[in-house]
Model the fold of this input.
Amino acid sequence: MLELRKFVAPEFIFGLGALDLVGRYAGNFGARKAFIVTDEGVVNSGITQQVIDNLKAIGLEFSLFTAISPNPRAQEVMAGAEQYLSDSCDVIISVGGGSPMDCAKGIGIVTTNRRHILEFEGIDNVEIPGPPLICLPTTAGTAADVSQFAIISNREELIKIAIVSKTMVPDVALIDPAATVSMDGYLTACTGIDALVHAFEAYVSTAHAPILDLHALNAITLIFENLVPVLQEPGNMELRGRIALASLEAGLAFSNASLGAVHAMAHSCGGLLDMPHGECNALLLDHVVAYNYPKAPERYRNIARAIGVPVDSMDSPAIKNEILQRIRQLKQEVGIIGGLKERGTVSADIPALARNAMKDPCMVTNPRVAAVRDIEVIYEEAL
Done:
């Protein structure tokens, strides 16, 4: 508890109407021209236009960049940086889910360091912070708006790289639950489970800490209690707010405690097979929990308590089984069914997936030290 630790988080505003503060915050940074990083889906939802209208209201010019894939590519980051510089922008505003926000983070550090985005891979490899970055999340799960992580896809080597640095933490996050209504049901489910995985992995991480544990456990409770109801009532702002809060709390936890094998393996799937990140996490979670449980039974006991399991009357094997059953039941109820095989993964992919996962920085803080064969077995079980 008394170990010397550093914690990082951006300034953040949470609640209905947060999106409408974007012009004020851009003005506070002394911006003359904003670089808006978003994607076509968010543009079509009308949310990007709300941001543009806010900027126009204060007379702020802007440049719009939308050429972003669901798993943002290195070449997209470099193209965005070139546009940012050529259009003489001085602040970045990211509107969207994890992909636009990670791309925006990458664009920022490329413009100030004048290096290729892939050169920043790893921990604390960014010398010069990017320009001011304002994030407006339209999903509730990735928490890229509060984290010191950026995940970029290298399509030449078919891997994802993790850039971990306090310079990746946005300057401001404007978290408006109303902006998440644009998500369809399946995206709501996948991003919600992504937040759940963030919380699970942060809580059992070897870098956990008491202040982070509070956020992780509350996020777990919020998701188990509210993810199914929000799918049943997608326009319910109270429910949307609870899931957005869960995403925020899980993000604060994992940004500082890091993650584990679920994310390392999901990043590998996204890199090699270009699979959606939240969906990968959902397919892998229960299998990794089963693998990790023997090394952190007391931590998982507390997780079980957070989701309503009567742990005081149960032994450790029963608690493990109940956690796994409840994860699987939640996935079933929110419509995430089947395994990796149904998403195009084949047995021949597993050796490469496992090798790449073992190199991921998230594996460092997994509670159980894994060998390549261990990871291969987990992938096999998740097929």
